[in-house]
């Protein structure tokens, strides 16, 4: 990796090198050789538009394909950088169908679309500029209707977090779009966008999309995939089961024939139900929420936000005890959803505080440097007067 490091001196308004001289000269020479800039001054001028912090990426010396055209398209959209439509791939960037214009497809060739979902959460004062315009942050989870939030607990993964929450639901365009996949993040960065775990040979996943942050598995070096470990395979299998289970119980909401309907819960004692739920919890890389376990026993609860919670369907054969149990589950769901919202708000506040502290630290370092310069200028006259005497 070739790099040169500078420190901005606020008193002089200049950039000074903080690397060893020979190391700095060698790296600077290589950077100028392989960049569009011929002098150090021209290179430093690129930092003028950034300010006192930030990063700037310069695309230079682009390759051409076999037809003599650039692989990147700068002409189709003056505010975007795209991968040129390749006739050999059979893809069409000019299609107007709902599926082709959806984010799941546009991010494959549009840098702006990809950057909009690159981070799961962003600090309040963070932004990405692309060709003179800010990239608008996009939260995929907000595109879902009839969402559920399922807790997944990886086994033998050494995961300090202990569990992850997977948001799953139908896209708001469903059933008009034939899109399915889970957006898997690792430490806030997108690794697998719209990962199709169910395959294309079935319709039991049409329109179902999920979002999760899997910090317990390791991404590859290029951050485009995960290492194929047993823990990764377990996650893939669980997400596949999650997809099919969600489809079986919710496909009727978007016009399909539901393969599984709400039915009367088994007439068993609460002791038996608790034992059954415990067994399920041990045998499965599981959703640990009692709502999900109850669904398998015959009771269905949508793990959604408070605004989406519906009362359980009334049946003449359902016992009063089971009705009370359902009400308690719904209340617990509301409580967990509110706690989740509080944690998200707390996370945003802490990120903002960290950013502020870093800014204050940088200002203190600059003030320290300024005071050092002033102290040096004060010591010099004293030494001179001593020599004179």
UniProtKB/TrEMBL annotation:
One of its GO terms (biological process) is DNA repair. One of its GO terms (cellular component) is nucleus. Pfam families: Morc6_S5. Residues 109-247 form the Morc S5 domain. InterPro entries: MORC_ATPase, Morc_S5. Residues 280-289 have a biased composition (Basic and acidic residues). Keywords: Coiled coil, DNA damage, DNA repair. GO terms for molecular function: ATP hydrolysis activity. Residues 347-374 form a coiled coil. Transmembrane segments: none annotated. Residues 264-289 are annotated as: Disordered. It comes from the Eukaryota. This is Protein MICRORCHIDIA 6. It comes from Nicotiana tabacum.
């Amino acid at each position: 990796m070739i790099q040169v490091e500078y420190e901005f001196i606020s008193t002089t308004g200049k950039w000074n090198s903080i690397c060893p001289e020979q190391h700095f000269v060698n790296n600077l020479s290589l950077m100028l050789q392989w960049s569009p800039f011929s002098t150090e001054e021209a290179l430093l001028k690129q930092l003028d538009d950034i300010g006192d912090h930030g990063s700037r990426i310069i695309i230079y010396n682009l390759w051409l394909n076999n037809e003599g055209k650039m692989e990147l398209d700068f002409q189709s959209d003056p505010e975007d950088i795209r991968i040129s439509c390749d006739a050999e791939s059979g893809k069409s960037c000019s299609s107007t169908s709902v599926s082709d214009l959806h984010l799941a497809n546009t991010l494959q060739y549009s840098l702006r679309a990809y950057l909009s979902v690159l981070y799961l959460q962003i600090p309040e004062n963070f932004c990405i500029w692309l060709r003179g315009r800010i990239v608008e942050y996009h939260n995929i989870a907000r595109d879902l209707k009839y969402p559920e939030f399922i807790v997944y607990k990886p086994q033998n993964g050494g995961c300090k977090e202990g569990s992850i929450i997977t948001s799953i639901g139908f896209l708001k365009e469903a059933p008009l779009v034939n899109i399915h996949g889970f957006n898997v993040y690792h430490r806030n960065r997108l690794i697998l966008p719209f990962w199709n775990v169910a395959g294309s040979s079935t319709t039991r996943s049409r329109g179902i999309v999920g979002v999760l942050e899997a910090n317990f598995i390791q991404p590859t070096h290029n951050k485009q995939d995960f290492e194929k470990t047993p823990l990764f395979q377990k996650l893939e299998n669980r997400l596949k089961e999650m997809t099919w289970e969600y489809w079986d119980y919710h496909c009727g909401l978007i016009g399909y024939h539901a393969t599984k309907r709400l039915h009367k819960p088994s007439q068993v004692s609460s002791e038996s139900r608790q034992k059954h739920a415990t067994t399920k919890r041990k045998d499965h890389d599981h959703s640990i929420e009692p709502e999900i376990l109850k669904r398998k026993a015959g009771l269905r609860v949508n793990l959604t936000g408070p605004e989406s919670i519906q009362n359980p369907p009334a049946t003449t054969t359902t016992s009063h005890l089971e009705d009370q149990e359902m009400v308690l589950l719904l209340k617990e769901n509301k409580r967990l959803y509110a706690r989740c919202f509080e944690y998200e708000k707390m996370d945003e506040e802490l990120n903002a505080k960290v950013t502020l502290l870093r800014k204050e630290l940088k200002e203190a370092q600059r003030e320290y440097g300024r005071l050092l310069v002033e102290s040096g200028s004060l010591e010099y006259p004293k030494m001179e007067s001593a020599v004179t005497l």
